[in-house]
From TrEMBL:
Record bears the keyword rRNA processing: no
Native species: Pollutimonas bauzanensis
Keyword DNA-binding set for record: yes
Pfam families in UniProt: FCD, GntR
Molecular function terms from GO: DNA binding; DNA-binding transcription factor activity
Keywords: DNA-binding, Transcription, Transcription regulation
Signal peptide bounds: none
Listed PANTHER family: HTH-TYPE TRANSCRIPTIONAL REGULATOR MCBR, TRANSCRIPTIONAL REGULATOR, GNTR FAMILY
Protein name as annotated: Transcriptional regulator, GntR family
Residues annotated as domain HTH gntR-type: 12-79
Length: 226
């Protein structure tokens, strides 16, 4: 845990920084379903007292991104196949709408940034070794860069909530490497999405995003829930 977190900067309130860092662990799949989160260890890693960690954790419990076990420990919820499918079905609609809006507002600077992120993602997939953490982070950064381009803060909050719940499962194949990673399937879908954004093609961007989500869903569902 200590290697995943950074000390809280003094310019930002401790509570908000702690919440952001724990959210990032969930959004980028660094915590596994069923994994316990120690309040004391997290506080030590961040260099803060237990109080702001407890407040952040219980806010995430209220959002169902974390849960309190019968023994009062805090852990990442496990997900059933039905829950995974339901959240995926919702993501197809919500995130599909977000990329449609982004396609109407995408700037040259955004396209250039996305191209760079996707190239970095492809290189990270080729990197030797079993640690694919950079792959997970780059994938999340690319997706959220597109969603933010929609310039709809309430929509972003909904998407973040979905990712907080599904993040520990969503990056199953990216985190450990897989055939999808080796073949760079996500990179291909991303490139189609970027091309559609460049062409101001909302329906094309939506289709590419949905193909990306469905591809990951089919692989993870077969590996994790079958």
């Amino acid at each position: 845990m200590q290697t995943l977190l950074s000390p809280a900067p003094k310019r930002v309130t401790l509570g908000s920084n702690v919440l952001l860092q724990i959210k990032d662990l969930l959004l980028s799949g660094k915590l596994m379903p069923g994994e316990q989160l120690s309040l004391r260890s997290t506080a030590e890693a961040l260099g803060v007292s237990v109080m702001p960690v407890r407040e952040a954790v219980y806010q995430l419990v209220a959002d169902q991104a974390l849960e309190v076990a019968p023994n009062r420990s805090v852990r990442v919820p496990k997900m059933t196949a039905d829950q995974f499918k339901e959240i995926t079905d919702i993501r197809l609609q919500i995130e599909g709408y977000a990329v449609e809006q982004a396609a109407r507002k995408a700037t040259d600077a955004l396209i250039e940034s996305l191209e760079a992120l996707n190239a970095d993602l492809a290189r990270a997939m080729d990197a030797p070794g079993g640690d694919k953490a950079p792959v997970v982070l780059l994938n999340k950064e690319l997706h959220f860069s597109i969603y933010e381009a929609a310039a709809m803060p309430m929509l972003m909050k909904i998407i973040e909530t979905l990712w907080l719940r599904i993040g520990p499962v969503l990056n199953y194949d990216l985190r450990g490497g897989s055939e999808r990673t080796e073949k760079k399937i996500a990179v291909e879908h991303h490139q189609k999405m970027i091309d559609a954004l460049r062409e101001s093609n909302p329906s094309g961007a939506r289709q590419a995003l949905q193909d990306d989500i469905k591809s990951a869903f089919n692989y993870i569902h077969a590996k994790q829930f079958s």
